[in-house]
Amino acid sequence: MEYQVTSGGATICYEMDGDPAAPVLLLINSIGSTREMWARQMAAFTSAYRVIRYDARGHGRSSVPHGAYTLDQLGGDALALLDAAGARTAHVCGLSLGGITAQWLALNAADRVGRLVLANTAARVGTVESWTERIELVHQKGMSAVADVAMPRWFSPAFHARDRETVHAFRAMVQNCPADGYLGCCAALRDADLRDQIARITAPTLLVASSADTATPPDGLEFIRERVAGAQLVTFDSAHLSNVECADEFTAAVLDFLKDRN
Predict the structure, then answer these.
(1) How many CB atoms lie within 10 A of CB 172?
(2) Measuring CA to CA, how many Å separate 203 from each of 99, 149, 169?
(3) Nearest CA to 178 among 38, 73, 56, 37?
(4) Taking CA 127 as the corner, what is the angle to CA 147 and CA 211, rounded to the nearest 5 degrees?
(5) Exposed (0-12), middle (13-18) or buried (19+): which is 165, by Cβ within 10 Å?
(6) Cβ atoms of 94 and 118 closer than 8 Å
(7) Inter-residue contact 181 to 59 (CB < 8 Å)
(8) CA angle 80, 82, 84 (to 5 degrees)
(9) Is 134 helix (H, G, I), strand (E, B) or coil?
(10) Could you tell me which residues come within 8 angstroms of residue 40 by beta carbon, excluding any fewer than 6 positions away?
(11) SS3 assignment, position 112
(12) CATH number of 130's domain
């Protein structure tokens, strides 16, 4: 069932699945995607957790405020839906944009975060120049051009060859992302830099890197591992969307990290 919450001038759409009495697991998606990016994890995750997944502002079925978004807004959206769901605390798993949003939560609302999974992300994702170029690409050529750029980053050549249907579905997801929403999140990523703060994270943390990830290379996760006390790092043989390309391994790693620690 779909729910809505109002946060910072946006309407955020989310779903809750699993036992209402189970511990909460919040899933936060990447830029250009929707909450459907977690489809491969849902059967296993909902067997043990009350799973909340949502569309970031400007994406999917959430509203699309015009203008630049901020990491504070994205983090505030996540807190608003936890409040609306009556979830005092939650384990948090985010990938890419979702990963830096999850870091914000662990830094700014530490008492709301149980365990933290940061996948294919960094404390500083990309550069000001790279996001400025991406914004210009959207203005000049639209979301179809962004989808063309994204697919070789999101999935390895081997995955393209063996599962073209999934690649096609994710390409359509990016192409259908509202341009204003994508641009707003590009601005948030352009401006977000948590490198000087990351060592303050106290939540038990699992880091997921991918050997062929050019969007958020493994050294960004290694940077976090060196600064977050006790952080664990696993590396998969995939490109950016490790939860899709290595779905079984990703799911197992997250559940192993969370199990018996609810």
Answers:
(1) 11
(2) 14, 34, 34
(3) 56
(4) 65
(5) exposed
(6) yes
(7) yes
(8) 70
(9) helix
(10) 243, 244, 247, 251
(11) helix
(12) 3.40.50.1820
Q: Which residue has the tokens 């990938």?
A: 95
- DSSP letters, 70-103, are -HHHHHHHHHHHHHHTT-S-EEEEEETHHHHHHH
Domain containing 183: what range? 2-258
Inform me whether the pLDDT recorded for 190 exceeds 50.
yes
Report the distance separating Cα 153 and Cα 241, nearest Å. 9
Which residues face 93 on adjacent strands?
A: 27, 117
pLDDT tens sequence across 218-236: 999 999 999 999 999 999 9
Distance CA 209, CA 26 (A): 19
pLDDT tens string 54-94: 999 999 999 999 999 999 999 999 999 999 999 999 999 99
The region, left, alpha or beta by phi > 0 then psi within -120 to 50, assigned to residue 255 is alpha
- Amino acid identity at 123: A
Q: State the total domains in the chain.
A: 1
Average pLDDT taken over every residue of the chain: 97
